[in-house]
UniProtKB/TrEMBL annotation, chain A:
This is Electron transfer flavoprotein alpha/beta-subunit N-terminal domain-containing protein. GO terms for molecular function: electron transfer activity. It comes from Caldovatus sediminis. PANTHER family: ELECTRON TRANSFER FLAVOPROTEIN BETA-SUBUNIT, ELECTRON TRANSFER FLAVOPROTEIN SUBUNIT BETA. Residues 26-210 form the Electron transfer flavoprotein alpha/beta-subunit N-terminal domain. Belongs to the ETF beta-subunit/FixA family. InterPro entries: ETF_a/b_N, ETF_b, Rossmann-like_a/b/a_fold. The lineage of its organism: Bacteria, Pseudomonadati, Pseudomonadota, Alphaproteobacteria, Acetobacterales.
UniProtKB/TrEMBL annotation, chain B:
The lineage of its organism: Bacteria, Pseudomonadati, Pseudomonadota, Alphaproteobacteria, Acetobacterales. GO terms for molecular function: electron transfer activity; flavin adenine dinucleotide binding. The keyword Transport applies. InterPro entries: DHS-like_NAD/FAD-binding_dom (IPR029035), ETF_a/b_N (IPR014730), ETF_a/FixB (IPR001308), ETF_asu_C (IPR014731), Rossmann-like_a/b/a_fold (IPR014729). The keyword Electron transport applies. FAD binds at residues 216, 255-259, 272-279, 293. Residues 4-196 form the Electron transfer flavoprotein alpha/beta-subunit N-terminal domain. Its cofactor is FAD. It comes from Caldovatus sediminis. Keywords: Electron transport, FAD, Flavoprotein, Transport. Belongs to the ETF alpha-subunit/FixB family. This is Electron transfer flavoprotein subunit alpha. Transmembrane segments: none annotated.
């Protein structure tokens, strides 16, 4: 059973993006000086792959970090979790903004990991530029069965993959025959474990494996071009002036209770 | 002016607001000086009467009612994809097609685009044309940045939320056409199993009039038990931030934000939430926020109308007590 987890990484969300802009003359975002880490959905997908590996000796788990040399430190962090294999796929100009080009690149990344993948895992959003388009687009392009927003994935004895997801008001359990691509959402059950310190130290010294995409993966003009990017302030709301209550806490709570009682009465009346 | 058309799958309980696509298409078309059309897809044609009226109200000037009798009661994405792909191949070879934002609509938009050799635009906040070039804006970096994207493609798919301001309804009655589809639907799909909902399954925050939400600052399950108590007193639902879901204090269906539920209640009570862009992206612009947080510098106070600078431990038990007595 070949399990491939694709990882994108994000800019550390604690860092301000004020200077975010395109690189001069290129449709690439300049992220110079912004530290990268795994996003919450990368982490959920990676933990899901590690759990499958732990549960079944027949599972071979390969982690692929899609990105350029600036991601090598992140790749080492991934290696410390000891998947069977971890490598970086892409070059300095890796861009995922055009979904059709991105899908060619991601398809090549999976192919570099496994000749016949059974299960491909990726976060529900693949990096900072994706809003959930890339996982279903990749599945569709490859003809793989797709399950979006899975929060738990197990292998059933009959060779199918069992996936749980919330779909509107209900929790669904899908049983899909490989090859399957699942986009993974965060959940208590797939919080990324801590790596062993020993493995962190080993990964820090080990060479990283990097694979350059085949030329045909980057061919053709982009169908969707990135024209610009800029940090945006949160949209104004609440009139911009928050009334902070003062005085004894009992009085403050009474004021809030009064507001809620009135609000409730309006709703009922 | 390009064709702008909403694709509306009807009767799927997983799609909270299918007509958001029509309202969004109408707004995009109006800005370009044109009118939107809509394709309504259902199992039976007769289901469509109320839907027809609503699509017209939301601004569709031209409506195609498509019925496929072989659609299952609870269609899977594969069924809707097959039907919509057929409709687009036979009815419309180019244009901008808009699906309702949300997990189902966004998956359909992405997969339809790949299946039809079109360009997927993702979940856009704004779409306009500059000559022949389509320009789309969408959030990136967890809603902290905005990307501007351009394409010359003539067939594009996007997902959109209901716009803040509705476009003026199209004047006069819409032109309506009906088709019955017989395109083959994938027949070998096992319907998904449905997990038995737990007796204490939380109410979903979408659609509630009031959401009582908690974040990392709740510190544990005890705080969330009190949030549930408060929500029950107010007939509301409990929401949570991503870290609170990760910690297991709330279920994944309760996650509010960029990557979670989009809620637009009248009131949002925010306890132990710092007010990150990723979280606020899931709260409707018209919602009034009340925040409880001991840190007076917390971002949440920049967007709240009313604030209590205090830990939840000092507020929740007292508030619950007072509302109980009332
Ligand atoms: C790709 C990506 C997508 C994301 N999507 C989402 C999303 O959809 N939804 C989401 O919520 N997050 C999302 N996040 C996470 C986001 O970046 C933040 O980590 C998260 O929103 C912070 O949640 P929080 O406000 O609960 O925690 P924190 O930011 O840690 O804030 C906790 C707050 O609690 C306050 N506090 C402490 N003690 C108390 C007390 N006793 N009583 C009351 N208050 C107290 C603190 O002062 C602080 O302000 C995403 C992140 C990434 C990278
Ligand atoms: N864009 C940035 N450039 C340089 N330093 C930053 C940037 N964003 C945040 N920091 C710093 O990173 C540290 C951690 O940030 P925070 O957790 O957001 O307080 C603080 O010292 C910040 O001042």
């Amino acid at each position: 059973m070949q399990v491939v987890v694709l990882l994108a990484g994000v800019v550390d969300p604690k860092w301000r993006l004020d200077r975010l802009a395109l690189r001069p003359g290129a449709a690439l975002v300049d992220e110079t000086g912004l530290p990268r880490r795994l996003g919450p959905f990368d982490e959920a997908a990676l933990e899901t792959a590690l759990k499958l590996r732990d549960a079944d000796p027949a599972v071979r788990a390969t982690a692929v970090l899609v990105g350029g040399p600036e991601d090598d430190a992140l790749l080492r962090a991934v290696s410390a979790f000891r998947p069977h294999r971890a490598f970086r796929f892409g070059g300095a100009a890796t861009s995922l903004w055009d979904p059709r080009a991105a899908v060619r690149l991601l398809g090549a990344a999976v192919a570099a990991a496994a000749e016949r993948p059974d299960l491909v895992l990726m976060g529900r959003e693949f990096g900072d530029g994706d809003d959930g388009t890339l996982p279903p687009a990749l599945a569709e392009a490859r003809g793989w069965r797709f399950c979006g927003l899975a929060h738990a994935v197990t292998l059933a004895g009959d060779g199918t993959v069992a996936l749980r997801r919330m779909r509107g008001p209900r929790e669904e359990i899908l049983r899909l025959r490989p090859p399957v691509l699942a986009s993974v959402t965060n959940d208590r059950g797939n919080r990324l474990r801590h790596p062993l310190l020993k493995h962190v130290m080993l990964a820090r010294r080990a060479p990283v494996e990097a694979i350059a995409p085949p030329p045909e993966a980057g061919e053709g003009a982009p169908a969707l071009a990135l024209r610009g990017i800029a940090a945006v302030p949160p949209p104004p709301r609440g009139g911009g002036a928050c009334r902070l209550l003062t005085g004894p806490i009992e009085t403050q709570v009474e004021e809030l209770a009064t507001l809620l009682r009135r609000w409730r009465a309006v709703g009922e009346g | 002016m390009r064709r702008v058309c909403a694709l509306v799958p009807l009767g799927d309980p997983a799609i909270a607001d299918p007509f958001a696509a029509v309202a969004a298409a109408a707004a995009v078309a109006a800005r370009g000086g044109g009118q939107a059309s809509a394709i309504l897809l259902a199992r039976e044609a007769r289901r469509g009467d109320a839907a027809l009226a609503q699509a017209a109200r939301e601004g569709a000037a031209e409506i195609l009612r498509a019925a496929h009798p072989a659609l299952p009661e609870a269609p899977q994405a594969e069924h809707l994809l097959a039907a919509f792909a057929h409709l687009l191949r036979t009815e419309a070879r180019d244009g901008l097609f808009i699906l309702p934002a949300g997990p189902v609509g966004e998956e359909l938009a992405a997969r339809l685009a790949l299946r039809l050799d079109a360009v997927p635009l993702g979940r856009c906040t704004d779409i306009a044309w500059e000559g022949r070039t389509l320009l789309a804006r969408r959030p990136a970096y967890g809603g902290r940045a905005e990307a501007r994207l351009a394409t010359e493609a003539t067939l594009c798919l996007a997902a959109m939320r209901r716009p803040a301001a509705a476009a003026a309804p199209a004047g006069g009655a819409p032109a309506v056409r009906a088709v019955t589809l017989d395109v083959a639907l994938p027949g070998d799909l096992e319907p998904p199993g449905v997990a038995e909902p737990a007796a204490d399954a939380p109410r979903r925050p979408e659609g509630a009039r009031i959401v009582v939400a908690g974040g990392r600052g709740m510190g544990g399950a005890e705080g969330f038990a009190q949030l549930r108590e408060l929500a029950a007193l107010l007939d509301g639902a409990v929401g949570a931030s991503l870290p609170a879901v990760d910690a297991g204090w709330a279920a994944v269906a309760q996650q509010v934000g960029q990557s979670g539920a989009f809620v637009a209640p009248e009131l949002y009570l925010a306890f132990g939430l710092s007010g990150t862009a990723q979280h606020l992206a899931g709260i409707g612009p018209g919602t009034r926020i009340v925040a409880v947080n001991p840190d007076p510098e917390a971002e949440i106070f920049r967007v709240a109308e009313l604030g209590l600078v205090a830990p939840w431990q000092e507020v929740l038990p007292r508030l619950i007590g007072r509302l109980r007595r009332a």
